[in-house]
Design brief:
Elements: H1 3-45, H2 49-62, H3 67-79, H4 83-96, H5 101-113, H6 117-126, H7 135-146, H8 150-164, H9 170-181, H10 185-196, H11 203-211
Helix pairs in contact: 1-2, 2-3, 3-4, 4-5, 5-6, 6-7, 7-8, 8-9, 9-10
């Protein structure tokens, strides 16, 4: 048989073998990764983060573009105090899945735990438009408050108010909570009155007014655009 024919037959056989083995190998790889994930989650549930770390690291080594594996590896490292590595993997998870609020907040928590407040704030500022509605701006405010950056927190809530355009009570309740934290009674009352505009029968707001020594009632409500800075 001519050499050329033998070569063609050899290539054809190789293609057939590859085609027949491909799906099987893919299933085997998927099963192996699922087993790794199960082992990692089981180890974490049993409090064995070192074992969970090994399994998630192997998973990431084999499939680096898996956002949830990068996330779980980062979270495991964070629990072990391995903040530099944790930040790297949590950043990768966020890059792979932008807009995933859980990834943003976990990365922010890790920055905070690592004492990297400036990096935390940069992250939250850059992701303030990720999420639903004004959530990103209020997230920035919440973490700024936690870090004691009160001017930044207040500015973020103001940004939320502007962005929201008077559509919901959320920014005004956030400002009321902020005012309560800094013992600014006038600002708290003003913000609660603004929040009341959106729900004049709120029992929670009634309790907040009573705590300030103010008799609650729907007449306290003030339209957002009528409240000064």
């Amino acid at each position: 048989m001519p050499t050329r024919v033998l070569i063609i037959l050899s290539i054809a056989c190789s293609v057939l073998l590859t085609a027949s083995c491909g799906p099987t190998q893919k299933v085997q790889r998927t099963l192996a990764l699922n087993q790794l994930s199960l082992k990692a989650r089981t180890a974490a549930a049993n409090g064995d983060d070192q074992q969970a770390l090994a399994h998630w690291q192997e998973y990431v080594d084999r499939r680096p573009h898996s956002h949830f594996a990068q996330y779980n590896l980062g979270m495991t490292e964070a629990r072990l105090g391995m903040y530099i590595s944790a930040i790297q993997h949590l950043t990768t998870a966020h890059d792979l899945r932008p807009g995933e609020v859980q990834y943003i907040e976990s990365l922010a928590d890790t920055y905070y735990a690592a004492g990297q407040t400036e990096d935390m704030m940069t992250l939250l500022q850059e992701t303030s438009n990720e999420g639903m509605g004004v959530d990103g701006h209020l997230r920035l405010a919440r973490y700024a408050q936690q870090a004691g950056l009160l001017d930044d927190a207040k500015a973020a809530i103001r940004s939320a108010m502007i962005f929201d355009k008077g559509e919901s009570a959320a920014p005004y309740m956030a400002m009321a909570d902020f005012a309560q934290q800094i013992n600014d009674r006038d600002l708290e009352l003003q913000s609660l009155r603004q929040a009341l505009w959106f729900d004049r029968s709120s029992n929670d707001l009634d309790q907040r007014f009573l705590a300030l020594g103010v008799t609650p009632g729907p007449s306290l409500a003030i339209a957002p655009e009528k409240i000064g800075n």
